[in-house]
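Example with several molecule types.
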Amino acid sequence: MGRMIGLRLIDAIPTILLVLTLVFVALRILPGDPAQVALGDMATPAQLELFREQMGLNLPLWQQYFIFLWDMLTLNLGRSLVSNVPVASIIAANLPYTIELTLVATGMGVIIGVPLGVLAATNRNKLPDSGVRVFSLIGYAIPDFYLGALMLIVFSLNLGWFPINGGGTDFLSRLHHVFLPALTLAMVKSAFLGRLTRTSLLEVLGKDYVRTARAKGARENRVIYRHGLRNALLPVTTGLGLSLLATLSGSVAIELVFNRPGLGETLIGAIAERDYPVIQAGAVIFAFFVVFINLLIDIAYIAIDPRIRVQS
Amino acid sequence: MTRPLLKISDVSVEFGPKANAIRVVDSVSFSIGAGEAVGLVGESGSGKSITSLSILRLIPDPPGRIVSGSIEFEGQDLLKLPANRMPEIRGRDIAMIFQEPMSSLNPVMTIGDQIAEALMLHQDLDRDARWQRVIEVLSLVGMPDPAARLGAFPHEFSGGMRQRVMIAMAVACNPKLLIADEPTTALDVTIQAQVLELMKSIRASVNTAILLISHDLGVIADLCERVVVMYSGRIVEEGSVESIFSKPEHPYTRGLLQSIPRLDDDRKRLYQIAGTVPMAGSVKKGCPFYARCDLRVDKCAAEMPPMFEFSKQHKAACWVTGEAEQ
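Resulting structure tokens for the full complex:
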């Protein structure tokens, strides 16, 4: 098992290199001169030239590329062009909020989505199934920023149950702050996971080994949860990984709607101001998350399905 | 006469929407005595598997349902039992082995856990005693070094070994009736022979009655005392293995027996019964074998023949041979 995880880690290296290259190229193609943006309209050509010299923007592209790679690998993220604060500390201040939001949203999505899927599958074509279908359609159809705004109006403004903005300070207040934005993301996620669980479980419940379990004298609950659900969870795990990534990017909009600190909110600001070092670092961190989450999915597979364990 | 272990009377099973349901099993009746081995033969689509599934009420509903009849097990009608009482019977009194050993075991559970589950559901044993019993049944089915294989997963075994695991699971609770639905069909010929030998030795050591479903008359002759022949959802002949093999009375059974290849004959082509099996439920009137029968007379198309008694142990549903006998 340890060996397999090691192999998957090595597999991830080319992906990460590719992502770094894409980020580098994308930023060079982006219109706008970073020196002009950083120094403002009043800067003289000499000042602009000096700035480019300092930032290494005059070097040939391939040299810039290797310097960029080296900086990223050594976590030398540079300073913000706008505020001159080290990028690392900007990220450190904002990243935890995004991670917190993503994790809580995913947890809620699973807690709501998987049981809904089981309910739908075990009551196929009956009332609960239709109910879950309607819920899923709504979850798919409503854009999350709109749902977020509705939640904010109802639960924060009108009812006053939740704070309107910010990220919170101590543990409890952070939980209080994250609840509503996480629930917003979780609605979309549970719609998706619910459908996925239903489909997957229905397929598994038709399998021969489920009939064997019944013939053995297992009662319906045992058949569904012990024999059905665990086999049905494999595709759901893939879906969960995909939706985790969707949540990460979805968090950008949600952080803006709820006026919450976070990586998304930071990145949007940085893009507007052509703050290259911050954009770079943000994009790279998102990319690392993607690779890391895929790795987690692979490990989850190994834990769930013994057949995968043997193949290594 | 003593009460049989299992008495199936007039059981009919339908599939599909109620308005135009297809009758897949039509008024089937037979019984099995305690410790007796009965073979149920028929082509694919003759309703033999559905009949066997109906005993445990495992027919997927929808689309299928048992529409009439009774299935008495030790005098108790299983069809009248509330659905939540059936799990007590399944696996404990009546156990079942399925045709597909490759897909009938749960891929994410160890074989030890899967056998132990049967014991856990029905017997009040502590952990140690339970594992002891798992090892015991695994060695009974000829698993080499059973204690070391408890933690192995199904994909680590060959088809024959998986079928042994299935049999171990089925006999773990010493069932009174073991239903084996084509237990050897999916296996290689040499493995088939081993599994059959195993079934025989199991029968001797566990003293269970067996209902063996097969399309292979050889397999049935090897293991059973009595044979029930099904065709298109109906029972067409029933009798002891000796009488049916030596003097088959239904033209369909005769055709089946003639289709068996023999080493000592020099035919160039194997015998085949002309035509194909009619789709279940498509024959509304008369004998379902009419279209393919060598002996047919006009009466056969008009009226379904009753079961004629040829001897105390031997019955067949054929107008021609039946009326000749009277």
